[in-house]
Amino acid sequence: MRFKTFYITIIVAFAIVVSRLFFLQVIRGKYFFLRSQRNAVRIIPEHALRGDILDRNGEVLVQDRLALNVSVTAQGLAKSEDIFKELAKVFGLNEEKLKLKFRQNINAPFALVTVLQDVDKTKALLIAERSDRFPGVLIGSEPIRQYIYGTSLAHVLGYLGMPQQFWTEYGEYGFSAETYVGVSGIEKYVDRFLRGSNGGKLIEVDNRGRQINTLGLRIPTKGADITLTIDIRVQKILDELLGSKKGAAILMNPFNGEIIAMASSPSFDPEI
Description:
Layout: H1 2-27, H2 29-39, E1 41-46, E2 53-54, E3 60-72, H3 74-79, H4 83-91, H5 95-105, E4 113-116, H6 121-129, E5 137-147, H7 154-157, E6 160-161, H8 167-170, E7 181-182, H9 185-189, H10 191-194, E8 199-205, E9 211-218, E10 226-227, H11 232-242, E11 247-252, E12 259-265
Parallel strand pairs: 2-10
Antiparallel strand pairs: 1-8, 2-3, 3-4, 3-5, 6-7, 8-9, 11-12
Helix pairs in contact: 4-5
């Protein structure tokens, strides 16, 4: 009797296991297969370079440079809880601050969240070479605006900012929350010409977050270059004459109204 009960229990347990496997592999097989495919696909945005701003002689006043960023996915954190600890060691930063920045910016389980910007190239390559220790961590590049002459012409050239601060003005024109736009000066006035067209790529990754295949690619397009009537050689002289005095000075061609130089003091650093 006991043997019969035991035998029936084994059969019932086996039947439950088989039915569960049938449910998962046959009935819900397609659902889990598609889900696993989505889990293995990652979208990596590639920001377009903004156009250069040149003086009347073709001297570059403003241009983009590529900075290296460190991004993390929640998928990677599920495989290793020490990612932020390891990143903090490499870059000499506070682990809790990295975690806080990740939590504040995550919006999807498989989305890339940038936790470090414009990092040292040697340290970034170290992370890339040890990808097995950093699952879900990606080293990417992003264009950063570089104002060649610092505070000179800051009031003329302007600077960039995030669009959520100006959503009323820019929201209807297709800006995303990660797009920088011109906030003042030339950067704002001709923003639609300077701003290029963003691209990106769709990649397939393995269970360690390493790229194994490129599924799609859209190449970003750089924005148009803009040439001003400013002569940077004259501008430097005007800046020196104004020095630390408070005020403004303008040199204009009286025959056609072209502004040759325009200085204002005190000034500011547009890169900040």
